[in-house]
Amino acid sequence: MYIGRVSGTVVATIKNELYQGRKLLVVDRLNLQGKPTGRYDIAVDMVQAGTGELVLVLDEGNSARQIVGREPNGAIRAVIVGIIDQVDIPGATFETYRARRTPAASGAADD
């Protein structure tokens, strides 16, 4: 399991039936300081995450298949299981997506 940031989406017109109706997202792995490691996964989104959001990724095939209800077989390894609101690690700089939104982007009215 790791903390990552959604950096994009994957669109495929022809895919394994397991992925039908499921959103696939590119997730950049982050280190304990909140910085990208240069590694990424393509993960099945189970929580309606969006680009830029900080997420919790379960990166273990057997557990991932259980979450999507395809255990013991299925072509799946990584699943987004949570959207992270806050991380408290001394010296870390995990900037959450919600903190980066501007008032106009979040739908707040101008005063």
Account of the protein in words:
With 111 residues, the chain is mainly beta. It has one domain (2-100): OB fold (Dihydrolipoamide Acetyltransferase, E2P) (Beta Barrel). The protein is 10% helix and 34% strand. The protein is built from 2 helices and 5 strands. The chain has helices at residues 61-67, 97-100; strands at residues 2-10, 24-30, 36-45, 54-59, 78-83. A hairpin with a 5-residue loop joins strand 2 (24-30) and strand 3.
Write the layout of secondary structure elements.
Blueprint: E1 2-10, E2 24-30, E3 36-45, E4 54-59, H1 61-67, E5 78-83, H2 97-100
Parallel strand pairs: 3-5
Antiparallel strand pairs: 1-2, 1-4, 2-3, 4-5
Helix content: under 10%
Strand content: 25-35%
Residue-averaged pLDDT: 81
Q: Radius of gyration, Cα only, in angstroms?
A: 15 Å
Number of helical regions: 2
Q: Which superfamily, in CATH terms, is the homologous superfamily? A: EutN/Ccml
Low-pLDDT ranges: 99-111
Number of strands: 5
Number of domains: 1
At the first level of CATH, the class is Mainly Beta
Distance linking N and C termini = 42 Å
* Assembly form of the protein: single chain
The assigned CATH architecture is Beta Barrel
Global structural class: mainly beta
Shape: globular
Throw out a few tags for this protein.
five-stranded mixed beta barrel; globular; OB fold (Dihydrolipoamide Acetyltransferase, E2P); mainly beta; 111 residues; single chain; 34% strand; disordered C terminus
